[in-house]
Write a structure and sequence with these properties.
There is one protein chain. Helices cover about 30% and strands about 35% of the residues. The chain contains eight helices and 13 strands. The protein has helices at about 10-20, 30-40, 80-95, 110-115, 155-165, 170-180, 215-230, 245-255; strands at about 1-5, 45-50, 50-60, 65-70, 100-105, 120-130, 145, 185-190, 190-200, 205-210, 235-240, 260-270, 280. The chain is globular, with a radius of gyration of 18 Å.
Length: about 290
């Protein structure tokens, strides 16, 4: 009999094991713990005879919520376990007042989410390239780009909410705690014009969240170049970008990225809290936007 329980820190290795089976190499133990800390009551494990067989994560941003990291062990697929986990996460978010839920679906999971009431919004593209610090990457920090401090985070969260669609200060605070040197922002005078975060993965870095005024792709580029200079090891650079951000996809092409895959942004409930995805040059992650 399959039962659903809350996920704990003792489940981190199980989550990582399933993620690596799916080749989701962007996740490290620090990422899983960060997700759990951001929404400790909204992460769930499915068990069969006390053996974990699947998991799902959710997070709330007041009236907006996200669901992600849904994986069921291959030996237990086709039994409705994924549906059970999703319903548990949806019900949790509804119970705490969330009105709109979004997620990023791999193409083969779209039908599952459609059966649960999700509809498609737009494609979310994945890009990759090797980290290099020569040529285009040789540009150093300019005076309008700065390393964000803890005192800057509330202003950055307010700026971010215009594009993301909700205030995600709690996520930005934990990213800043974990990667203070890789959390950069840009301003003109006292006005914030963008920010970017680079976080470690198993094989390199995930770039995002990366948010900028969509009329200033030049600022987005300077943020990216400065972020690359701040990274401390070689490897792959990966980024996820909404397909509706045409200036973002052009910028990535100019920087030598190649598209590797895509997911589908989907929404459940009220069609609100959408922000302006044209200003999202890099998502924070498919599990939390």
């Amino acid at each position: 009999m399959v039962v659903i329980r809350q996920l704990t820190k003792g489940d981190v290795n199980f989550v990582l094991g399933l993620a690596r089976q799916e080749d989701w190499i962007e996740y490290t133990p620090l990422d899983i713990i960060r997700c759990l800390e951001c929404e400790p009551n909204g992460c769930f494990v499915a068990e069969d005879r006390r053996k974990p067989i699947g998991h799902v994560f959710s997070i709330s941003y007041e009236k907006a919520g996200w669901i992600g990291l849904l994986i069921v062990h291959p030996d237990h697929r086709g039994r409705g376990v994924g549906t059970m986990l999703m319903i548990t996460a949806i019900n949790y978010l509804k119970r705490i007042g969330v009105e709109t839920i979004r997620l990023e679906a791999v193409p083969e999971a779209v039908r599952l989410y459609q059966r649960l009431g999700f509809v498609e919004e737009f494609d979310s593209l994945r890009f990759c390239k090797e980290l290099k610090r020569e040529g285009v990457y040789a540009e150093s920090l300019r005076k309008e780009v700065f390393i964000a401090q803890k005192k800057d985070l509330e202003n950055l969260a307010d700026f971010d909410s215009k594009y993301f669609g909700a205030n995600r200060l709690k996520v930005l605070e934990r990213l800043h705690r974990d990667y203070p040197k890789n959390f950069l922002a840009a301003r003109e005078g006292r006005r914030i014009t963008g920010y970017i975060v680079g976080r470690k993965t198993l094989k390199g870095y995930w770039v995002g969240p990366w948010v900028c005024n969509p009329t200033r792709p030049d600022v987005a580029k300077r943020l990216f170049l400065s972020c690359v200079e701040a990274l401390d090891r070689k490897g792959e650079l990966r980024v996820g970008t909404p397909a509706v951000n045409s200036s973002g996809t052009r910028l990535l092409a100019d920087l030598g990225f190649r598209q590797t895959s895509k997911s589908v942004r989907m929404i459940w409930g009220k069609h609100e809290y959408s922000g302006n995805p044209e200003g999202v040059f890099g998502i924070g992650g498919p599990e939390k936007g």
